[in-house]
Amino acid sequence: MNLAWIDYTIILIYFIFVIGIGLFTKKRIKNSNDFLSSGKSIPLWITSLAFISANLGAQEVMGMAASGAKYGMITAHFYWVGAIPAMVFLGVCMMPFYYQSKARSVPEYLKLRFDEKTRAFNAISFAILTVFSSGISLYALAILLDPLLGWNFETSVLLSAGVVMVYTFMGGLTSAVYNEVFQFFLIILGIAPISILGVIKLGGWRNFIDQLPPVMTHCWKYLDSSDHNPMGVNSWSLMLGLGFVLSFGYWCTDFLVVQRAMIARNLSSAQKTPLIAAFPKILLPFVVVLPGLIAVALFQSGDTFHLPMRSDQQINYDMTLPLLLSHFFPSGLLGLGLTALIASFMSGMAGNVTAFNSVWTYDIYQAYFRKSAPDSHYLLVGRASTVLGIILSIGTAYLTRTFNNLNDLLQLICGFINAPLFATFFLGMFWKRTTGHGAFSGLLVGTLAAIGVHGLTLAEGKGAWLVHTPLYEFHSGMGHALGVAIVAWSTCFITTLLVSYLTKPKPIHELKGLVFGTTQPTDENPEQWYKKPTTLGFVVIVVALIFNYVWY
Amino acid sequence: MFILLLEDLRFVIGLFFSLISLILLLAGVISPSNPHSDFNLNWMAAGYIGVFSGVMLFLGISAYRKNLSSPSTKKEKPSFEIREFTEISAQ
Predict the structure, then answer these.
(1) Which of B7, B13, B20, B56 to mutate to test the interface with A (most CBs of A within 10 A)?
(2) More confident residue, A59 or A453
(3) Do residues A321 and A127 make contact, with C-beta atoms less than 8 angstroms apart?
(4) Phi, psi for A459 (deg, rounded to 5)
(5) Residue A309, phi then psi, degrees to nearest 5
(6) CA gap A70, A293 in Å, rounded
(7) Which residues are A473's β-sheet partners?
(8) Which architecture does CATH list for A5-405?
């Protein structure tokens, strides 16, 4: 890819602005709460955009374009089924408990609701996975920038990590959140033209759709059997595995995204954060998935565009988006598109690092190393853990480069740990009888069940590492992941129920504000019915249903 | 005033994208031909990004002016920090 000086100028201006935002937010940092929780002062529109931007990392942007090229419009299920219902549930049902509990993090909520060991399990696993996730993001950026900009691995890793470290170190969570909003607009304005130019190039919408095989242009029609669609899943496993277990596990319990809602100015804003974020989220498939379909249609139409092959002679779908940028954009606009890709990597990494420093400081350091220290000490620890998180991420990026399969392994472990989590939170928030022992054993057994199912079953040659003959073979890797998640969730749910029945629950007065039915909602500033989170949530669900219907 | 405006995220975003818009205008002059399109894509992008940046600058400046004119009501809070705005207006 040939870049001109004008493209590099755009990238340079971007770096200057993100560091500038860090510099301007630095003066807001007076104590550890400002640094790690933004002092709960962020306006609603910012928390909402940061909420989706924290998830709009490079794996999302490039991965969804790749999935669009591989599976077609069915990929939109990751949004319309795999995100929207969970975001509405978080806003309407769960956020009141997170916010009113005054917990500073999701693990801290577990401490208040259950006990110390449940918090420790969640905090330690989350901190480790967050750092690994950030490192993988860094690794992916480095291997992308090598062919695109000609930067070597060291330059890409150190420059990107350095910029993220400078602005998160200076302005903490506020700086990360403001940069996420900035990066959100950059990603949309830099990448959206591909969809428009692609459709125009293919002769309009109707011609574009006609170039594609029918299975790629429908979301539900070919889900009657896992044999009938390229994703290898059926509608039930999709709804249960993706639409319930995985999406609720991620959107409702992952501190990385929940943190963006927890820093809102008041409860109403905290509840509306995921609901307002849901509107752009519904439209995102047209920015990140559609380019994948355009890539396929261009190839089918005899255009010069084609995807490269990997060393194992499989199509390299991961290059869909960068190659489309290079195909359509002239110098100038190309610089903007590449800056948008860099922004998506940095956004994902900064999100992980700021979630890591909060959990490390509040839930590990303050809980187990030094309980009572002056606030300035925790501010120092927060800053130090930001640097530590970045250094560990760089280490993970190098590890991933050395061990090629580390990325797959880490994604797998993330799945094992995340899948059962929602069962714990669901029971904890809506059933007073749930006990700390029940929650902890449920999480443990659910995670072990996930590992066990993966080790006993097979898909696309992966898994079944516990036995010579697999007990069951799934049609696809996606079907496998959904199956593992469903078993993990169910096991956690049943174990938590059983153990909770056998152990002594917390007295009701200790659960005040933490569990459904323990407090009466206080409507100090009652809103009109159309401004209430439930109304907003209802509208979001209706809009999502319309999109599902149109793309049936 | 400019420093205070820089504390509003909308203004910062508007400023960044107006710079990008200008750069794309320049890019459209330098390389007017595009391999897969009949129009000058850089100018097209400069247009829509210019409109977006204009809206963001307007929102940022409006919030600033609103806080100057009615510091006590604090109807519209700027995205970064309100304290500096109200202090200036009080002076």
Answers:
(1) B20
(2) A453
(3) no
(4) -160, 130
(5) -100, 150
(6) 8
(7) A458
(8) Up-down Bundle (1.20)
